[in-house]
Design goal:
172 residues, 0% strand, elongated
């Protein structure tokens, strides 16, 4: 009886590990979608409103949710308090929070870092063309990961379950 309960617990625990890995990938896809929404909001504000960066960030933070929204809100507060520092420095400093809290891949984080070096550095036309380039790169990555997402979730769940069964068989 004890072996059966222990075996069930092992299978359940390993399945949950696989499930957590699948959920992490799903969270990454969702955060990439939020990042693309932020980029689109930012571009729209630059093109049509012509607002300053702290105002754009504060407005974008109100519309975003999740870890990307928290990061943009923190960046907006930092840029409001530290108007004398270059925006690229503030962006780089705030990326530590995004790295810590989000599920975004290192490649996407590198693209986001590149995006911060573009903002507020050139004239509007040059900014928009470079922002469009980064947006296209992130969109391409988002579409690839979104297409793979359901397969990765199923694979992670299956491997977790089968790994648990394998461990139970070895222990019996």
């Amino acid at each position: 009886m004890v072996k059966a309960i222990g075996g069930c617990l092992i299978v359940y625990a390993s399945f949950m590990v696989g499930h957590a890995i699948g959920q992490l990938h799903g969270r990454m896809v969702k955060e990439m979608e939020e990042m693309l929404l932020f980029i689109q909001l930012f571009k729209g504000q630059i093109m049509y409103a012509g607002s300053e960066l702290p105002e754009i960030l504060a407005d974008s933070a109100k519309r975003l949710k999740g870890n990307v929204g928290k990061w943009v809100n923190g960046l907006a507060e930092m840029s409001e308090k530290n108007r004398d520092r270059p925006f690229a420095e503030l962006w780089t400093d705030s990326l530590a929070m995004l790295r810590r809290d989000s599920a975004l891949s290192l490649e996407v984080l590198a693209d986001v870092d590149r995006l911060g070096k573009i903002m507020g550095d050139m004239d509007v036309e040059a900014q928009l063309s470079r922002i469009n380039l980064v947006e296209d790169i992130i969109t391409d990555r988002y579409q690839r990961e979104r297409a793979r997402s359901s397969g990765i979730k199923r694979l992670a769940n299956s491997l977790g379950l089968l790994g648990g069964v394998f461990i139970v068989i070895l222990l019996m």
